């Protein structure tokens, strides 16, 4: 099966007076039809920028400087999205027409000036030539599909009259209005309370199952990854450090950063003790001041002096479809993996 979206060697950079910020620095990833790829990492790792690059939604002084993003909607010829003019008609057709997108702050994506119905009708008519009353019927149907109660009444309310969860449902409805082959969701539940979060995740899984839609799901939350992902890409400072299926990432994580992220999930101990909450030690270096060699070495428990501070590791294959960017696996004199003795 050919990937629906195949990104290779993507570099997105920002020129600032203080130098170049390499927000996305040579990213390779694939999204397969009907599957969910979760892109996970701490803030500043480039996961949002990767998602925005797909849609050519990078604000100046940022721009895509290198790489290819092959987009193959069903039955159509592959298009390299990276080669399209960010302001041109072809990317506009893709954006919102073939690829839907939802963001962290649903409220800020909706105009306070327009009713829910007006937003939906506009989205529908942007990509389809249908008369207004027909579009209105379609809008109502979309509101029903995303589980909004009393859709007739909700058509006429303004975004600020809705809760955060209801707003996000409206955003999902807008994203679905073009029947997208791919939905890109950038932290869509981060701003919501836990109960609402769970409901939105359920909704996304339902619509995905109905539509056979693929999803690229950006999150910093491994709980969300466990819930949503088929495939996982772990990013650190603009690079993919590990990729694999969700089973591989949770049951056989290989990169020290993936291990550290998994260790940071609070675990309930026996006897009702307070859950232990660990975070990955140290701070993410500033992207303008990247470490030499491996970018994770300033926080890595396994860094090998003379190796990790000198050479940037390449990706190596460690299992069927699992790849890791770490000298522990690739260096001739390395241990061939994370040394057991250091594990708890
Ligand atoms: Fe740690 Fe070295 Fe692997 Fe980087 S390459 S993650 S510093 S062991
Ligand atoms: Mg972000």
Automatic annotation (TrEMBL):
What are the transmembrane regions? none
Q: Where does it localize?
A: Cell membrane
Is Ligase one of the keywords UniProt gives this record? no
Q: Name one GO biological process term.
A: peptide transport
Molecular function (Gene Ontology), one example: ATP hydrolysis activity
Q: Which family does it belong to?
A: Belongs to the ABC transporter superfamily.
Q: What is this protein called?
A: Peptide/nickel transport system ATP-binding protein
State the organism named in the record: Nesterenkonia xinjiangensis
Residues represented out of the complete protein: 22 to 365 of 742
């Amino acid at each position: 099966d050919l990937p629906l979206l195949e990104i290779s060697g993507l570099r997105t950079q920002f020129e600032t007076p203080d130098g170049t910020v390499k927000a996305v620095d040579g990213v390779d990833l694939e999204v397969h039809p009907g599957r969910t790829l979760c892109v996970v990492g701490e803030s500043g790792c480039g996961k949002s920028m990767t998602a925005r690059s797909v849609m050519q939604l990078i604000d100046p002084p940022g721009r895509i400087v290198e790489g290819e993003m092959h987009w193959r909607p069903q039955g159509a010829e592959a298009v390299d999205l990276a080669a399209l003019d960010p302001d041109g008609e072809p990317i506009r057709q893709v954006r919102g027409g073939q690829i839907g997108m939802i963001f962290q702050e649903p409220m800020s994506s909706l105009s306070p000036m327009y009713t829910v119905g007006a937003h939906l009708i506009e989205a529908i008519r942007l990509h389809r030539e249908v008369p207004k009353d027909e579009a209105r019927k379609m809008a109502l149907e979309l509101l029903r599909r995303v589980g909004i109660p009393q859709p007739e009444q909700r058509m006429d309310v303004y975004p600020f009259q809705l809760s955060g969860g209801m707003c996000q449902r409206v955003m999902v409805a807008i994203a679905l209005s073009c029947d997208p082959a791919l939905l890109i969701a950038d932290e869509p539940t981060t701003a919501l309370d836990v109960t609402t979060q769970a409901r939105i995740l359920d909704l996304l899984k339902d619509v995905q199952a109905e539509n056979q839609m693929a999803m690229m799901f950006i999150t910093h939350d491994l709980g969300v990854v466990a819930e949503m992902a088929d495939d996982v890409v772990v990013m650190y400072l603009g690079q993919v450090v590990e990729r694999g299926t969700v089973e591989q990432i949770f049951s056989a994580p290989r990169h020290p950063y993936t291990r550290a992220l998994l260790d940071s999930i609070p675990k309930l101990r026996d006897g009702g003790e307070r859950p232990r909450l660990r975070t990955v030690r140290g701070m993410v270096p500033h992207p303008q001041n990247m470490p030499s060699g491996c970018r994770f070495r300033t926080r890595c428990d396994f860094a090998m002096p003379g190796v990790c501070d000198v050479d940037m590791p390449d990706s190596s294959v460690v299992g069927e479809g699992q790849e890791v960017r770490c000298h522990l696996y690739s260096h001739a004199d390395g241990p061939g993996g994370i040394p057991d003795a250091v594990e708890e």
